[in-house]
């Protein structure tokens, strides 16, 4: 079967463990509902409906689906559009970009791409390629050494409480001073900054589940009051949790 020069991949997923993907097309990765996790080039991101990733053809990525989600991604033949400027860019979606993606849903790999569809995909490419030039700063480096990777994983399991940096250092068989230096060298941030980013990324992921209450989410990521959570979330995203959830659309 000959695939059209651009098409939408639409599918509902149940939670799945991570898997590695390499596409032979430029890939706009997007979840219309729910959230997924993306890891590539030594960094990790959470992708709720307010955020998308543009991936250059041939670039290896790892995707995990921690919750039920509705994927609505788009694949572009390398001869149909110019190559993205970056090999990978995670960016914030605008209402226009979201509506364009959703409008492309009827053009799957088996559909006939008419003139309207061609123009729709071209407009989507122009819009998202431009958005991708301003990447999100919400990604978290994965770490290069086993010790830092393990320290991040241990921290992630303790977000609801008060994780101890000294205890985590002991668990990865390093002194706190050595582990702190590793965080600075490998991640470009302190452990406390990484903890905050992990908490915010988990909160963003939880907000993509409409059944979860914001107060419950706040406690689940280690905040003892809704006001403290709202302040931290606004500092991180520029929006309150309610506003951020509202940006997901219908």
Automatic annotation (TrEMBL):
InterPro entries from the UniProt entry: Homeodomain-like_sf (IPR009057), HTH_AraC (IPR018060), HTH_AraC-typ_CS (IPR018062), Tscrpt_reg_AraC-type_HTH (IPR020449)
Domain of life: Bacteria
Domain HTH araC/xylS-type: 149-247
PROSITE patterns assigned: HTH_ARAC_FAMILY_1, HTH_ARAC_FAMILY_2
Keyword annotations from UniProtKB, A to Z: DNA-binding, Transcription, Transcription regulation
Gene Ontology molecular function terms on file: DNA-binding transcription factor activity; sequence-specific DNA binding
SMART domains found in the cross-reference section: HTH_ARAC
Pfam families in the record: HTH_18
Keyword Transcription regulation found: yes
Keyword Transcription part of the UniProt annotation: yes
The protein's name: AraC-type DNA-binding protein
């Amino acid at each position: 079967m000959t695939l059209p020069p651009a098409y939408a991949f639409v599918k509902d997923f149940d939670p799945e463990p991570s898997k590695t993907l390499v596409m032979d097309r430029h890939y706009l990765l997007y979840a219309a509902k729910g959230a997924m996790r993306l890891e590539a080039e030594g960094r990790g991101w959470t992708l709720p409906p307010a955020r998308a990733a543009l991936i250059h053809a041939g670039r290896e990525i790892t995707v995990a689906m921690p919750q039920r989600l509705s994927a609505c991604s788009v694949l572009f033949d390398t001869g149909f559009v110019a190559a993205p400027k970056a090999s990978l860019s995670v960016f914030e979606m605008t209402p226009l970009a979201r509506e364009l993606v959703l409008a492309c849903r009827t053009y799957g790999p088996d559909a006939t791409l008419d003139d309207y569809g061609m123009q729709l995909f071209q407009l989507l490419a122009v819009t998202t390629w431009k958005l991708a030039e301003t990447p999100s700063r919400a990604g978290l480096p994965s770490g290069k050494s086993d010790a830092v990777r393990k320290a991040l994983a241990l921290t992630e399991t303790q977000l609801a409480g008060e994780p101890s940096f000294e205890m985590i250092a002991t668990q990865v068989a390093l002194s706190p001073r050595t582990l702190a230096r590793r965080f600075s060298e490998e991640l470009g941030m302190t452990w406390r900054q990484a903890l905050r980013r992990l908490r915010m990324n988990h909160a963003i992921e939880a907000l993509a589940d409409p059944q979860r209450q914001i107060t419950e989410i706040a406690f689940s990521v280690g905040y003892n009051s809704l006001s403290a959570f709202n302040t931290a979330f606004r500092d991180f995203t520029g929006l309150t949790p309610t506003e951020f959830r509202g940006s997901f659309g219908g």
